[in-house]
Amino acid sequence: MTKTTQRDLFPGALEMMILRTLKSQRLHGYALAQHIKRTSEDLLQIEEGSLYPALQRLLKQELVKAEWGTSSTNRRVRIYKLTAAGAKHLQHEVSSFERMLEGITRVLAPGES
Hints:
Layout: H1 3-8, H2 13-24, E1 27-28, H3 29-39, H4 48-60, E2 64-70, E3 76-82, H5 84-108
Antiparallel strand pairs: 1-3, 2-3
Helix pairs in contact: 2-5
C-alpha cells in the first residue's frame, strides 16, 4: 500500500480487514495480503511494512492467534486465525464503521445541503 493510499484509510481499517478475512479462513501473512488485494479488485495493496506490524498488534491484543505451518510452496509460515475475542471486536468495529459510513453518506447525499 502506498503512503498516499495508506493515509486515506481511517485508523483501524487494516486491522478490521484482517479480522474479517480471518473470520472465514486461516491464512499466513502473504496469503492474507493477496486475499485483501484480490477481494478489493486491486484497489488495496497491503505492504509487508503495514501488514506485519498490524498482525503483531492483533496478536498482542489476543484478537488473533498464530501457529507455525507450511505454505503451499512448502515454506514454513505463521498461520493466523481469529480468536473469540477477535470475532467480538470485529463485530463491534464493523457496527461502528457502518454507523460512521451512514452519517458520511447522509452528509454527502445530493440536494441535502
